[in-house]
Structures are given as C-alpha cells and as structure tokens.
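[job 4417] fold queue: 2 targets
>>> target A
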Amino acid sequence: MAYTILAIDTAVENCSVALTVGNDVITRCKMAPREHTLKILPMIDNVLAEANLTLGQLDAVAYGRGPGSFTGVRIGIGIAQGLAFGADLPMVGVSTMAAMAQQTYRRKQVTRVLIAIDAHMNEIYFGGYQRKENGDWDVAFEETVLPPKDLNKKLLTSNVVTVNGEWTIAGTGWLAYPALASQLHLAINNSSVLYPESEDMLILAHHALLRGEAVDAENASPVYLRDNVAWKKLSGRA
C-alpha cells in the first residue's frame, strides 16, 4: 500500500518538508538557523500546492521527533500537531538519527551508519543503525546523549563492535569533535551527511504505518534524550 504522507523536520539547523504521492516525492529543504518558524509553513504550502493536494487528502503527517535542538524539535512537532489535529490525521514520529541513516544509504548505498549530532554543552547525541532487507532499519546502538570522551567505552560494551565490515559516519558531531572517529575501534567510512532531510523520513514513516505505530495528534511526543527538558502536548496542557 502506498501512503500519501507529509513529513516535517525542524530538529536541527536546517528545516525540510517532503510529500510522497504515489511514486512521486516533492521536497523542500533550507538551511534556516533560528528561522524555522518563518520558513516551514510556506514550504508546507508549497509542496501541497505543487501536488495539488489538501491536508484532508493525506494519510498521515510524519514529524522529526528528535533528538535535536529543544526549540527546533518543539517547533516541528507543534506545527505537525496543529496540521494533523485540524485535518483529523494520524501522526508518525521519526527519529532524526534514523532519517540520517536513511539519507546516508540514499547517497552512499551503505547499510551500517553511526550518527553523531553536536548537542552542545560538550555532549553529542549518538546512535547506530543497520539497514534491513525490507528497507527499514534496526537500532544497532540505542540513541543516547553523552560526552564525546565516553563514546568509545560505550561502544565497546555494545553489539556494534561485533558487526563485521565498515560503519559509515554521519552528522555534525564528527566535525565538532574531529578526534572522535579516530578513537573508535571500528573500520570507519566518512559521508557528507550532516543534517536530516524530510524525504528520508517518508520510507521510515511508511514502515511505521505498516506496523500500526501511528498516533492521534494529541498523543504525539518528542524525544529529547536530555532529562532536563519538558514538553506539553497540544491538548491537556494543564
């Protein structure tokens, strides 16, 4: 079954929108630090107009659930919730890191990806993914936030080091901490992927819908990884 899905992501410095209609994918992506609220709604209107669709004709709205900037994740989920709530559409949260793994596969045709995103405050968001035959992804290393100096120790206690072959790295964390990759006891291949793009959320959202993981708008929630932040959903704000 081919779903018609609108995907929205504002979790990091760029913001992006993608729409899948049958075999066609319409995308918009812009670097917009601190301008997400100005850019994202016109981008959504633009892709819907190009497809000649209304929100009511969609099957679901996918949103970048994080991890990422607290403000960026909050903007993305808030806009996605507002659209889905108004059009009575289900929502699907997609991991920022899983979307970057899918983008790395799209660009490099690699199936093992380690993601490190600069989380600032001398920390990184980190996760590992391995692609399955059906195009979905398995979590090889659970998403976490940690100081870069602790990454190698964490990896040594994980299943990542037992997988033969190269791992491809993606994300801004490797640039923010240049020595990070060289400290790992793994065969590493670089990629040019730094930021998530919504078009890569579409296939992940499709698999999530097939698994029955869609939720009502009021139940959509972010993943920040840091414990010192909170989010109040669209309904039930009290």
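>>> target B
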Amino acid sequence: MPYFDGFYWCNQIREISNVPIIFLSSRNSRMDQIMGMNMGADYYIEKPVDLDVLMARINALLRRTYSYTELEEPNVLEYHNVFLHIDTNTLSYLEEKIELTKNEFLILYELMKQKGAIVSRDEIMRVLWEDESFVDDNTLTVNIVRIRKKLAEIGIKDFIKTKKGQGYMIE
C-alpha cells in the first residue's frame, strides 16, 4: 500500500466498525502478527497462501460473525416513511393505509428489499411467476402502473423510478 499500511487501516476500520478483518501479508515476523491481532484483525495470514485454508478461514469467520441461523425476516420494510407490512400485504404512509394484491406486494417487497439498486424487469418477473414463458411483458407494466396509482392516491409520488432499458428502483 503506497501511503498507509494495513495496521493503520485496520485501526481506522475498528474505530467505526466490527466487520471481520483478515490480514494477508508478506510480512512474516511474530511482531507483525501480534501487532495485527492487537490492532483488531481476526486473522493474520502470511503469503504464500493455501487458497483452501484461506477460504476455510473466511467461511469460519463469516459463520462466527454473522450467525445466519438467528436472522429473522422483518415484519415491516420501511423507506422514507413508507411502510410495507409483510404479514398483512398492506402499505402505509403517514395516516393512510392501502391493501395490495399478491403481485403488487411482491413487486414492492422486491424493490424495497433492494432499495437504491436497479431491479431488472426479468428479476421481478421471476419473483412473480416461476415460469415466464406464458407471461406477457406488458403484464408487469400494468402491475407497476396499478401500484403507482395506489401510491399516488395516498400522497406518494415518484416512489418507483423507471430506469429505461434496465428495470425499476426505489431511490
């Protein structure tokens, strides 16, 4: 690294986050290893690296850091005071609440799950219909128009953005 070394960056990261950190270094002195671990690294691995061992350490660290078995789906997704209620297939904004059809709900759920990212039309269609072969592309457009109309009725404008030739997004 040209200006700062891994010890510096590890210290900077640890000031703001507890993300897993693995040192992968050509430095091989015991002092470097001790310093890396004391700065907050989870592992210090010397080059050359056995890729199988590296992958095993990464997987173990991720398993320990992010206990996937304990993750629970939230009951509500929220973005800019728009609440999508997963248990009831409803959407609320301020004091207003609307009922959503199954397809409207699935479209909003996918877009809100991936807020800030473009979700392709194909991806949304796969969520809605497992077999796309019988689905007309216009069907998705009709569903988006219906959602936008429902959102406008309760005061939400420009919530779903069309990204021409790419898909849709909530930003």
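[job 4417] complete. Note on B: The first helix runs from residue 6 to 16.
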